[in-house]
């Protein structure tokens, strides 16, 4: 029995349809949804970009992209053929008139329309305007916009204002693909679907929380973008902040887009300013067989960070006094993302000779090996007397789901289907994005003004030594990255 939720017929226009994201993620993802039976027969995907291609040329491009990035499914050539028949293409000029009349002919007014702006943010305004002046968009259309959503509060505010001239907030889907990850959604299920955790989810029982997003890739190939952003703008302002919100927010009154987003916004607003003492910026050095960050971005004097670790506090009743330690970096020792809720020590032990500190730790693994484990203390089995050890109660999703694990859609697939369904729960609202910038802006401005030099770290490590110290000073330690 298929558990796939059916969607209504749609026309999805992808501006930037020949670009990297479209070829790597969007189209291969849509093909997987097609295979899962989630694309009604008369639905269409229309690529729109500058290149002078015809529909067949585009189909060929996407067939190659699916072969390259689509995984195992791409060997299903018969299905791929049928999928490709649903594709169309329009050569379009975002800043001129070219192509708009053709697009208007293709997009049907009586089905769900979604316009994916997979282009530079400087074109958002042009696209939004032309969709209206050419009579293509209706009040039911949806637009999808990618990050980066601005590079500071002022630019994000300006972007929001531009979009608001043409579309209502209910029509705007700002993607943060971390919200589409299976475990991230599970975070809400765990917190609000169990009686066990919520009573402990506060400063009486939680010692601290760690959020780690560690990557092994460097920034080769996207140096021009990355060097102007750095880890704070590229990862913390959006992905890590969203994770922080879901961990820390109050239970929403219902599982509905604005109810959830209202609670997330409150968390961001309650974040205290951080002083520099509690931030460590790093930049990867050259390794035995790899280039340094500065070589990768071709900027020998770059002060941009490829790693950041920080200690944050949320000023509210639930979290007063509980540090949230965040870290993320490129060229680290493993690709591993995890949220760990470290509970407090037992105040007193009744077990003689048990000096070890036993702690319950709930670890939520985003990738790889998505799953959750809870470290609990038990008696060491066997005749050794009452000796205590810590063991994980492990729920790796792949084990729990068996064959069904393959059906778990990737973040982009899930989010695109949510757009078609009209469900904004996993998308950022305009005020959320602005609040996040409002918090990060002074930090970034501070180090830009003083030309703060990031600490070098070895590629393949856990980041600079100072990041270890950040927790050491508090008598704590980071979890291993593995
Ligand atoms: C993107 C960042 O948003 O997320 C990249 O721009 C980063 O720098 C990527 O590599 C990480 O995503 P994922 O899904 O691979 O963890």
From TrEMBL:
Reactions catalysed according to its record: D-glucose 6-phosphate + NADP(+) = 6-phospho-D-glucono-1,5-lactone + NADPH + H(+)
Matching SUPFAM superfamilies: Glyceraldehyde-3-phosphate dehydrogenase-like, C-terminal domain (SSF55347), NAD(P)-binding Rossmann-fold domains (SSF51735)
Span of domain Glucose-6-phosphate dehydrogenase C-terminal: 188-479
Boundaries of every Glucose-6-phosphate dehydrogenase NAD-binding domain copy: 13-186
UniProtKB keywords: Carbohydrate metabolism, Glucose metabolism, NADP, Oxidoreductase
Keyword NADP belongs to the record: yes
One Pfam family named in its UniProt record: G6PD_N
GO terms under cellular component: cytosol
Residues that hold substrate according to the record: 177, 181, 215, 234, 330
Binding of NADP(+), residues: 16-23, 50, 147
Task performed by this protein: Catalyzes the oxidation of glucose 6-phosphate to 6-phosphogluconolactone.
Listed name of the protein: Glucose-6-phosphate 1-dehydrogenase
Source organism per UniProt: Yoonia litorea
């Amino acid at each position: 029995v298929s558990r796939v939720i059916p969607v209504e017929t749609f026309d999805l226009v992808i501006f930037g349809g020949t670009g990297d994201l479209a070829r790597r993620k969007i189209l291969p993802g849509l093909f997987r949804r097609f295979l899962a039976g989630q694309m009604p027969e008369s639905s269409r995907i229309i690529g729109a970009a500058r290149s002078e291609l015809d529909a067949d040329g585009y189909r060929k491009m996407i067939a190659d992209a699916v072969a390259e990035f689509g995984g195992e499914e791409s060997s299903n050539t018969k299905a791929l053929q049928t999928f490709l028949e649903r594709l169309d293409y329009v050569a379009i000029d975002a800043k001129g008139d070219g192509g708009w009349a053709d697009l208007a002919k293709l997009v049907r007014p009586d089905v769900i329309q979604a316009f994916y702006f997979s282009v530079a943010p400087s074109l958002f305004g042009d696209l939004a305007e032309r969709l209206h002046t050419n009579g293509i968009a209706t009040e039911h259309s949806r637009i999808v916009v990618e990050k980066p959503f601005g590079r500071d509060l002022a630019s994000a505010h300006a972007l929001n204002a531009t979009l608001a001239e043409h579309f209502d907030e209910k029509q705007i889907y700002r993607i943060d693909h971390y919200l589409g990850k299976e475990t991230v959604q599970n975070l809400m299920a765990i917190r609000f679907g169990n009686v066990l955790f919520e009573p402990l989810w506060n400063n009486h029982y939680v010692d601290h929380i760690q959020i780690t997003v560690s990557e092994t890739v460097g920034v080769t190939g996207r140096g021009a973008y990355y060097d102007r952003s750095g880890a704070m703008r590229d990862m913390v302002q959006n992905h890590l902040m969203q994770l922080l919100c879901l961990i820390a927010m109050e239970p929403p009154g219902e599982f509905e887009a604005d109810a959830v987003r209202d609670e997330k916004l409150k968390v961001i607003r309650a974040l205290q300013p951080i002083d520099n003492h509690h931030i460590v910026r790093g930049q990867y050095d050259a390794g035995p067989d790899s280039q340094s960050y500065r070589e990768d971005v071709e900027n020998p004097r770059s002060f941009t960070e490829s790693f950041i670790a920080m200690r944050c506090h949320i000023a509210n009743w639930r979290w007063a006094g509980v540090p949230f330690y965040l870290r993320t970096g490129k060229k680290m020792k493993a690709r591993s993302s995890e949220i760990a809720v470290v509970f407090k020590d037992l105040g007193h032990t009744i077990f003689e000779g048990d000096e070890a500190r036993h702690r319950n730790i709930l670890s939520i693994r985003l990738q790889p090996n998505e799953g959750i484990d809870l470290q609990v203390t038990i008696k060491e089995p066997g005749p050794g007397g009452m000796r205590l050890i810590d063991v994980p109660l492990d729920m790796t999703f792949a084990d729990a789901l068996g064959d069904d694990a393959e059906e778990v859609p990737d973040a982009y697939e899930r989010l695109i289907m949510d757009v078609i369904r009209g469900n904004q729960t996993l998308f950022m609202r305009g005020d959320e994005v602005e609040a996040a910038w409002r918090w990060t802006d002074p930090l970034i401005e501070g180090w830009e003004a003083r030309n703060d030099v990031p600490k070098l770290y070895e590629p393949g490590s856990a980041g600079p030594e100072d990041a270890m110290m950040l927790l050491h000073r508090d008598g704590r330690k980071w979890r291993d990255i593995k």
